[in-house]
Design goal:
heterodimer; A: 426 residues; alpha/beta; Rossmann fold; Dihydrodipicolinate Reductase, domain 2; 2 domains; nine-stranded mixed β-sheet; 18% strand; B: 696 residues; mainly alpha; 41 helices; 69% helix
C-alpha cells in the first residue's frame, strides 16, 4: 500500500511541475504524409496490453505524429510483449514497461494514454489519467454503472480532457452512410432499430487458489474497483461473465450499435424512456450475466430499439424500407434504390480503426470534442445499462433521460451506482 | 469489440437456463415460509460452490417488488445471515442484496460491520449503505470515522463525500492532515464533493499548504468544488475558485485549463472577454482550449469578434480558430474565412477551404473553384470536399457558372461535383456539356446526367443516345439512359418509349444501344422485344439481343435462353445462351426434378468440356436422382470426369434414405471411374449397406 501511495504522491508532484503543452497543428491541416517535427508529436502511454490493447496500440504506432514511450499491465507477460511491440516498431529499447499505472501516469513526458484494460478499469483509469493531465483513448465499455459513466463525463469537463471512446464505427464510412440514409428519410419514417450483439457463453466454479506473485500477475490491481474475491484463474479468465467485473453482452457490444442507433435517431444527448425484455441467465456457476438477451426499448417518439443476441449488426426499419449494417461494415437495404441514392459504401471492414484514432490525435492537438466524446458515449452506454437493469429486475422500467433516474422504481435507481473498493473512487 | 475466451465452457452447452420473466411470474407472491427457506439456504454458500441458492434470492427480490410486508421479511431474513457465522462470501452476497432492499432496519448490522476492522467487511458494508437513503446512514458513517483506519477509513470518507454530508465536513477536514496518505487524499476529495462554504474554505487553505501533495490534491478537489457550487447556482463562489486556480502559475496546465473552462462555462460577457484575452495572451497552455471553447459561447457577437482577430494570430492558431469558427456556424465569419482561404498560409488555406464546406454559400464558390483548379493537391481536395457539402439556394447555379467558364480539366472536376451534389438545376448545362467536343467532358457530363436526372429529363437523355455521333461516348450514354430509366416507377411505359425510339431509327449502332438498355430494364415487354430481335436477320442486332438476354438479371429469360440453346445455329450464341441459362437456373428455386431435366437439356446442348463443366457445377446443387444419373453419365468423358464425380458426390450427399440404392450404385460407379484417391474415398463412404431387418 505504501508503495502505491508514494506513486500517487509522485504523480501529483510531477504533474504540478509539468511544462505547458505546445500549441500544435492538427494533422488534418498539415497533410498526413508530411514528416512530423518532435514538437508536433503526441507522446503516448498504453495501459492494458492484452490482445485488444496491442491491436489498438498497433494502430497508434503507425500514426507518424505518435511516439509511444511507455506501457503498463498487471500481467508481466503482457507488459513484456507490449514493450517488445513498441521497441520493434521504433528499432530501439526505449519503451518503459511498468506494472502500476501510477508509474505511467506520473510521467511528465506523456501527453495521452490508451486504456485497453478490463472493463472495470476503463472509467477509473480515464479519470485518473485526466487528473494527471493526460488525454485518453479508452476501449468500450467504458463504465460499469450509469453513475460511473456520468462521473467520467464530469471529470473530463472539469479538466478539459480530450477523451475518445473506442466505438470506432463512429469514424467508419459504412456506418456514417447508413446514418445519412436514416436521417435523410430514405427509409421513410423511422419505426424501429434492431441491434444484435452476437452469442455469449462460458461458465464454471471459481475455487480459491493461491494468489500469484504480483510481479507476475498483480491480482489485487487486476480486481480494481470490484468487490474483493479470492484469486482463481477461472475468475480472471471469465471476467466478462460476472456483474462484478463486467456488464455482459449488451454492455460489451451495445455501445457500438447503440451508438449508431442514437446517431441515426438524432438523440445523442438523450435516450429511450422505457425498457422491457427477457434474458436467459445461467442457472448456476460464476457466470451471472445473461447469455441470451431480448430487450425492447422505446423512445418518447415511439421509435423502438430491439436488442438481441443475433448476428452482430444494426438494422433500421422505416415505413418505406430498411437498411442494415453488419459488424464488418457490409450494408444491405430494401429497396435497393436506397443504396444507389446514397452511394453507400459496403464492406469497409476494420481498417477504419485508424480513422477513429486519427480523430482522437487531431483533437488532442486542437482541443476539440472527439467523434465519440464523453456525453455521446455516456448516453449509448446508458441504454445498455438500463437494458441490463430491466433484465435483472425482470420487469419493465421507465427512464427519465433528462434527470437520469428511473421513474417509480427504487430498486432500479439503487442499481445506478455502486461503491468501489478503496482506494478507487469516482 | 474484444475477443472472448470460451475455454471454460464447463457446462454451458448443457446448462439449464432460466428466463428472468418466466421465473418472476412463477414466483409471484412467494410465501413467508418460502422466503425463510430460500434465504436460509445461502448460509452454506462459499466461494467456488454452487450459486443456485443465490440465484433463488435474486428471484425473490424481484418477486417481492411492491410488497412492503414481504420485502421487510426478506430483509430480516437476509440480516439473519449477516449476523450469523456464514462465510464472507455469503455475507458479501447479502450486502449486495441489501443495497437493493435495505432500509433503516439494516443499519444496526451494517454499523457493526463498519467497526469490524476488516477492510473487505467494511467495504462491502459501504456497498449496502451507499444505496440506503436514510439520513441515519450518515450518522453511523460518521461514527465509523473514529473507528476505522487505512483503506476502510478511506472507503467511509469517500462514501460521506458521495452523500454530500455537510455534518461531517469538520471531521473530514481534520482527516486531510492524516498521516495515512490514502485517508488524507480521500478526505480532500470528499470535501470537493461536499462543496459548502466550510469545505471550500478548507480547500482554499490547503491550496496554500507547504506540502506539495496536499496542494496538488486540494487543487483537484477545488475544481470539483467549483463545479458543484456552479451546479447549485452559486456562480460567484465558483468563479472565485476558478479565478484563483487560473491565476496560479504553479498549478499544472490541465488544472488551470479546467479552471479556465469552468469560468467560460459560467457564461455571460465575461466568458467572451476571458476567451478573447486568453487567445491574445502568451499563455500557450490555455490558448488551444480557449479557441476550442468559442463554439460554446452564447454571445451573439462572438463570431464577428473572433473572426476579426483571425489575421492577427500565428498560422497554427489561425487553423484552430478557423475550425472553431466553422463549428460556431455564424455566417458573420464567412468573409474572414473566405479571405483566409485565398490569402493565408498553406495550412490555413486548407483549413479555411474545409470550413467553407459548412459555413459557405454561393459566394464561396469562386474561391473554392479556384482552389480546385490550382496546383496544390491538398487544397484541391479540401475545396472539392467543401463544394460537395456547400449550402445555399443558388450554390448549384454558381457551380454551373464556374464550370462553364473553366478549362476542360477543371470542368470535368466541377461536373463530378455537380453529380455528387445531385444538382437537378445543373441538368440543362449538363445536357449541353454532353455534346462537348472534349471526350472527357462529354463522358463526365453523361455520367452526371445518369446520377442527377429524373423522369422529366428522360426524353432529353434518351435523345442524346439516339442522336449520338461518337462511339467513344456510347457506353456512358447507354449507362445514363439506363440509370434514369431505372428510377422511373412505370417500367412498362419506359420500355415502350425505348421501343418507340428503336422503331424510329434505322441506325444499327443506335438500335443496338437501345437493346442493351432494354436488357437492363428487364421487364416482360423488354424480354419479349429482345426475343423478337434475337431472330432478326441483321446479324449485329441479333447478336446484341442474344447477348442482352444472356446477361438478363432475372429468371424471365430462362425460357428464351433454353429456346436459343436448342435452336441457335451459332456456336457462339449457343455458348452465350448456355451460360445465361445455367446462371439463371442456379439462381432459381424450383422443383428439383424439373431443374434436373433442364440441366439435362443444357448438357445435351453443351458443345465442349468448358460448357459441360459449367453445367456439372450447377447440377451439384440439385438434390434429385435424375441429377445424379446425369452426373454419372458424364463419367465416361475423361475431359470432365473429375467434375462429374465431384457433382455426383455432392448430389448423393443431399439425397434421402429412399434413394439409398441409387446412391450406392452411383457411388460404386464413381469409385470405379476416378483416379483421385480422395474422391474415391468420399464415394465409398456414401455406399450404403442395406439396413438389417428387425424381427418383432
Amino acid at each position: 500500500m505504501s508503495e502505491r501511495v508514494l506513486r500517487r504522491e509522485f504523480l501529483s508532484r510531477t504533474v504540478a511541475t509539468a511544462l505547458s503543452a505546445p500549441l500544435v497543428l492538427p494533422a488534418s491541416a498539415l497533410g498526413r504524409a508530411q514528416a512530423v517535427a518532435p514538437s508536433n508529436r503526441i507522446t503516448l502511454g498504453a495501459i492494458g496490453l492484452g490482445g485488444r490493447g496491442q491491436y489498438d496500440l498497433g494502430h497508434f504506432l503507425v500514426e507518424k505524429d505518435v511516439r509511444c514511450v511507455g506501457v503498463c499491465d498487471c500481467f508481466a507477460d503482457r507488459r513484456a510483449s507490449g514493450k517488445a511491440l513498441v521497441d520493434r516498431h521504433y528499432g530501439n529499447q526505449d519503451c518503459k514497461a511498468c506494472r502500476c499505472h501510477e508509474d505511467l501516469l506520473g510521467r511528465g513526458d506523456i501527453d495521452a494514454v490508451l486504456v485497453a484494460t478490463g472493463d472495470r478499469w476503463h472509467a477509473v483509469l480515464s479519470m485518473l489519467a485526466a487528473r494527471a493531465g493526460k488525454d485518453v483513448y479508452t476501449e468500450k465499455p467504458y463504465c460499469l454503472t450509469i453513475a460511473e459513466g456520468r462521473a467520467l463525463v464530469e471529470t473530463t469537463k472539469r479538466y478539459g480532457t480530450i477523451w475518445q471512446c473506442g466505438t470506432q464505427r463512429r469514424s467508419n464510412a459504412s456506418y456514417r452512410s447508413v446514418v445519412d440514409v436514416v436521417r435523410s428519410g430514405l427509409i421513410g419514417k423511422l419505426r424501429s432499430i434492431r441491434t444484435s450483439f452476437g452469442g455469449w457463453g462460458g461458465n464454471g466454479f471459481p475455487k480459491p487458489e493461491p494468489e500469484p506473485d504480483p510481479e507476475v500477475f498483480d491480482y489485487d490491481r487486476w480486481l480494481g474497483q470490484a468487490p474483493w474475491a479470492p484469486y482463481c484463474k477461472l475468475r480472471v479468465d471469465l471476467w466478462r461473465n460476472t456483474w462484478d467485473t463486467s456488464g455482459g453482452p449488451i454492455v460489451d457490444m451495445g455501445p457500438h450499435f447503440l451508438d449508431t442507433a442514437q446517431w441515426a435517431h438524432n438523440s445523442e444527448s438523450s435516450g429511450p424512456v422505457e425498457y422491457e425484455g427477457t434474458g436467459e441467465f445461467p442457472e448456476d456457476g460464476l457466470a451471472n450475466v445473461p447469455f441470451v438477451v431480448n430487450v425492447t426499448a422505446r423512445y418518447a417518439d415511439g421509435v423502438r430499439i430491439e436488442m438481441d443476441s443475433g448476428e452482430k449488426a444494426v438494422r433500421f426499419d422505416g415505413d418505406a424500407g430498411w437498411i442494415r449494417v453488419d459488424d464488418m461494415g457490409g450494408i444491405t437495404a430494401e429497396p435497393k434504390s436506397i443504396l444507389q441514392a446514397r452511394r453507400a459504401v459496403s464492406g469497409v471492414g476494420y481498417t477504419y480503426m485508424a480513422g477513429h484514432i486519427r480523430n482522437f490525435l487531431d483533437c488532442v492537438k486542437s482541443r476539440q470534442l472527439t467523434a465519440s466524446h464523453p456525453e455521446i458515449a455516456h448516453r449509448n452506454h446508458t441504454i445498455a445499462h438500463c437494458a441490463n437493469i430491466a433484465l435483472r429486475l425482470g420487469r419493465k422500467v421507465r427512464w427519465d433521460p433528462d434527470h437520469e433516474r428511473f421513474l417509480n422504481d427504487d430498486d432500479a435507481n439503487r442499481m445506478l451506482s455502486r461503491t468501489m473498493r478503496a482506494p478507487w473512487r469516482v | 469489440m474484444k475477443l472472448h475466451d470460451f475455454r471454460y465452457v464447463l457446462f454451458a452447452a448443457a446448462a439449464v437456463f432460466c428466463t428472468s420473466g418466466h421465473v418472476v411470474s412463477a414466483l409471484a407472491g412467494p410465501t413467508p415460509a418460502e422466503i425463510e427457506r430460500t434465504v436460509a439456504a445461502i448460509r452454506a454458500y462459499d466461494y467456488g460452490r454452487s450459486e443456485k441458492p443465490l440465484r433463488a434470492v435474486d428471484q425473490l427480490i424481484n418477486a417481492t417488488f411492491g410488497n412492503s410486508e414481504l420485502r421487510s421479511l426478506l430483509e430480516r431474513e437476509l440480516l439473519k445471515v449477516l449476523e450469523s457465522d456464514a462465510s464472507l462470501a455469503s455475507k458479501q452476497f447479502v450486502c449486495r442484496k441489501l443495497a437493493i432492499v435495505g432500509s433503516d432496519a439494516s443499519l444496526p448490522a451494517l454499523r457493526k460491520m463498519l467497526a469490524s476492522g476488516n477492510d473487505a467487511v467494511v467495504e462491502i458494508a459501504c456497498y449496502s449503505l451507499s444505496q440506503i437513503k436514510s439520513p441515519a446512514v450518515n450518522g453511523i458513517l460518521r461514527e465509523g470515522l473514529g473507528q476505522a483506519k487505512g483503506k476502510a477509513l478511506s472507503a467511509i470518507v469517500t462514501l460521506l463525500g458521495d452523500r454530500r454530508d455537510a455534518e461531517s465536513v469538520e471531521a473530514i477536514g481534520r482527516l486531510t492532515e492524516s498521516r495515512e496518505p490514502i485517508v488524507a487524499e480521500a478526505a480532500v476529495a470528499a470535501l470537493g464533493k461536499m462543496a459548502d462554504a466550510h469545505a471550500a474554505a478548507i480547500l482554499a487553505r490547503l491550496r496554500g499548504s507547504d506540502s506539495p501533495r496536499l496542494r496538488a490534491t486540494a487543487q483537484h478537489a477545488s475544481l470539483q468544488c467549483a463545479r458543484e457550487l456552479a451546479a447549485r447556482g452559486n456562480s460567484a463562489a465558483a468563479a472565485k475558485i476558478y479565478e484563483s486556480l487560473t491565476a496560479d502559475d504553479k498549478a499544472p496546465t490541465h488544472v488551470r485549463r479546467g479552471a479556465f473552462l469552468g469560468q467560460v462555462a459560467l457564461g455571460g460577457p465575461d466568458a467572451t472577454r476571458l476567451v478573447l484575452a486568453t487567445i491574445g495572451s502568451a499563455d500557450r497552455g490555455l490558448k488551444a482550449a480557449a479557441i476550442a471553447a468559442i463554439p460554446t459561447l452564447r454571445d451573439p457577437k462572438a463570431g464577428a469578434l473572433f473572426a476579426g482577430k483571425l489575421a492577427e494570430l500565428p498560422a497554427a492558431e489561425q487553423v484552430l480558430l478557423i475550425e472553431a469558427l466553422a463549428r460556431l456556424g455564424d455566417p458573420a465569419v464567412r468573409s474572414a474565412i473566405t479571405r483566409a482561404a485565398s490569402h493565408g498560409g498553406p495550412g490555413v488555406r486548407i483549413a479555411a477551404l474545409g470550413a467553407l464546406g459548412t459555413l459557405g454559400d454561393e459566394s464561396s464558390v469562386p474561391v473554392l473553384v479556384a482552389a480546385l483548379g490550382g496546383s496544390q493537391s491538398q487544397e484541391g481536395e479540401a475545396a472539392g470536399a467543401a463544394l460537395r457539402t456547400l449550402g445555399g439556394e443558388r450554390t448549384d447555379a454558381a457551380i454551373v457558372k464556374g464550370m462553364q467558364a473553366a478549362e476542360e480539366r477543371l470542368r470535368v472536376e466541377l461536373i463530378r461535383v455537380l453529380a455528387d451534389r445531385r444538382a437537378a438545376a445543373a441538368v440543362p448545362a449538363l445536357l449541353e456539356e454532353a455534346a462537348s467536343p472534349d471526350v472527357a467532358v462529354g463522358e463526365a457530363a453523361l455520367r452526371a446526367l445518369g446520377a442527377v436526372t429524373g423522369e422529366a429529363d428522360f426524353p432529353a437523355v434518351l435523345a442524346i443516345l439516339t442522336r449520338l455521333n461518337r462511339d467513344q461516348l456510347r457506353p456512358e450514354a447507354e449507362q445514363a439512359v439506363a440509370s434514369v430509366a431505372r428510377r422511373i416507377a412505370d417500367r412498362s411505359k419506359t420500355t415502350e418509349t425505348l421501343l418507340a425510339a428503336f422503331d424510329a431509327t434505322s441506325d444499327v449502332p443506335t438500335k443496338c444501344s437501345l437493346l442493351r438498355v432494354l436488357g437492363t430494364i428487364a421487364d416482360d415487354l423488354a424480354c419479349a422485344a429482345l426475343v423478337v430481335v434475337a431472330r432478326d436477320s441483321d446479324p449485329q442486332l441479333k447478336d446484341t439481343a442474344i447477348r442482352a438476354l444472356a446477361d438478363w438479371p432475372d429468371v424471365r429469360a430462362v425460357e428464351p435462353l433454353g429456346w436459343l440453346l436448342r435452336t441457335s445455329a451459332s456456336k457462339t450464341h449457343r455458348t452465350l445462351a448456355l451460360r445465361g441459362y445455367v446462371r439463371l437456373l442456379a439462381a432459381r428455386a424450383g422443383e428439383p426434378g424439373i431443374l434436373a431435366e433442364r440441366y439435362a437439356n443444357a448438357m445435351a446442348a453443351a458443345d465442349g468440356p468448358d460448357d459441360k463443366k459449367l453445367v456439372l457445377g450447377a447440377l451439384a446443387g440439385v438434390p434429385h436422382r435424375r441429377a445424379l444419373t446425369l452426373a454419372t453419365s458424364c463419367l465416361n468423358d475423361t475431359a470432365v470426369r473429375t467434375e462429374a464425380a465431384t457433382a455426383a458426390i455432392a448430389i448423393a450427399r443431399k439425397l434421402p434414405e429412399a434413394d439409398a440404392a441409387a446412391v450406392s450404385a452411383a457411388m460404386q460407379l464413381v469409385a470405379a471411374s476416378v483416379a483421385d484417391a480422395q474422391l474415391r474415398e468420399q464415394a465409398k463412404a456414401l455406399i450404403r449397406r442395406p439396413a438389417k431387418s428387425h424381427k418383432p
